[in-house]
Amino acid sequence: MSGFFGIRLARHLKKMMKYMRYVFNDHFILVCVFLLGGLGFYYSQVLKTLPENFIWGRPIVLVFWLVLLQIGRIATLAEEADKVFILPKEPEMNTYLNRAIRYSFWLPIVALFLMGGMSMPLVVVSTGWAFSTFFYFIVMLGILKASHLRLQKYELYQVTSRERSLWFAVWLATSIVAIGLSLYVLPLAGPLAAGVQAVLFYLVLKKKEAAVSLDWELMVQKEKNRMHRIYQFIHLFTDVPEISSSVKRRKFLDPLLNKIKKTSQNTYLYLYARSFLRGSEYSGLFIRLVLVAGVILFFLKEFWISMGVSVLFIYLIGFQLIPIYTQFDYMVMTHLYPVPNGQKKQAVGKLVTVLLLVAAILFSLFVLIALPDFKEAAMVVVALIVEVLLFAKFYVPYRLKKMEA
């Protein structure tokens, strides 16, 4: 069964790699670099204001590390047909699931290494220990994550929800003890306590698993849920066949559509506006990006970072909306409309301009609230308006011309 998991894993990785080139595009990397740079700058400024032996530092780090340990679920790669075709192989599924645990361990450990490293300055300020103690902390977090995955494997068996909750409570309590010992007593005490926890979990859960059968329905459903979350994330960047866009009536938005005169000059504008408001593909993307940018801008106090983030998100929203131009290309009837082809470009330009202005107004409100200096906030507002006008006047026609080439 280990080889069988390897075959499925190779197929899964091949599929994910196909999507990753769309996710990690230049724009996403640019946003990540900008956001991480801004957060790093803000974090460093906050650390400078903290007193020595900051009393709340250790509890904050403890909670932060516990949250980090929740990252990553066991990837069983189980499929619907397994309930029938793999069922006779259940006695060998332990090997299969152990391989799944090993595969599922590496991505969380990378996240723990990066995020745990980011929390080290706060640990140093709070405890007075050296940065070299990070080695003990990362070993402890890695062991705790391994036992967390081991617990997730046990939850795939036919056990009651009460027992699942009980074992998770035991894991959580022992993890708090291990992290607490490492932060309050001695860094080396954390890995030792985590090691004891991992050994006990391994021995006890192995014995309990031998007495029960796998819950195939639950295992398949958990894997479906896990993959659905991954596809939802990828869907932010590209179309995913596994995620279908929904269409809803949304009658309450009819007043907005009624503002568009029903004349032949507005044929495509009406179609694009209706598609945006009733579909979830572009409206969902627009709402998500506006919310993300709004939350970031609300907490930013630095003028240049606010300026950069708001300008960058306006560009990203506009860039992601332009493909709506091809929304009706597959409909034969639209090609019979007695309207000039140039009307499509004008309609997309108008729609993108209106939506970017709405986003710019919302961003301006957040900036005006967050920035302490009104003049600096006003400069950001002016920059956003200028950007929207330039984007609609020059960049949208350029991109549409390139799409037709």
UniProtKB/TrEMBL annotation:
<feature type="transmembrane region" description="Helical">
    <location>
        <begin position="55"/>
        <end position="75"/>
    </location>
</feature>
<feature type="transmembrane region" description="Helical">
    <location>
        <begin position="21"/>
        <end position="43"/>
    </location>
</feature>
<feature type="transmembrane region" description="Helical">
    <location>
        <begin position="282"/>
        <end position="300"/>
    </location>
</feature>
<feature type="transmembrane region" description="Helical">
    <location>
        <begin position="165"/>
        <end position="182"/>
    </location>
</feature>
<feature type="transmembrane region" description="Helical">
    <location>
        <begin position="377"/>
        <end position="396"/>
    </location>
</feature>
<keyword id="KW-1133">Transmembrane helix</keyword>
<feature type="transmembrane region" description="Helical">
    <location>
        <begin position="122"/>
        <end position="144"/>
    </location>
</feature>
<feature type="transmembrane region" description="Helical">
    <location>
        <begin position="306"/>
        <end position="326"/>
    </location>
</feature>
<dbReference type="GO" id="GO:0016020">
    <property type="term" value="C:membrane"/>
</dbReference>
<feature type="transmembrane region" description="Helical">
    <location>
        <begin position="188"/>
        <end position="205"/>
    </location>
</feature>
<dbReference type="Pfam" id="PF05975">
    <property type="entry name" value="EcsB"/>
</dbReference>
<feature type="transmembrane region" description="Helical">
    <location>
        <begin position="96"/>
        <end position="116"/>
    </location>
</feature>
<dbReference type="InterPro" id="IPR010288">
    <property type="entry name" value="EcsB_ABC"/>
</dbReference>
<feature type="transmembrane region" description="Helical">
    <location>
        <begin position="347"/>
        <end position="371"/>
    </location>
</feature>
<protein>
    <submittedName>
        <fullName>ABC-2 type transport system permease</fullName>
    </submittedName>
</protein>
<keyword id="KW-0812">Transmembrane</keyword>
<keyword id="KW-0472">Membrane</keyword>
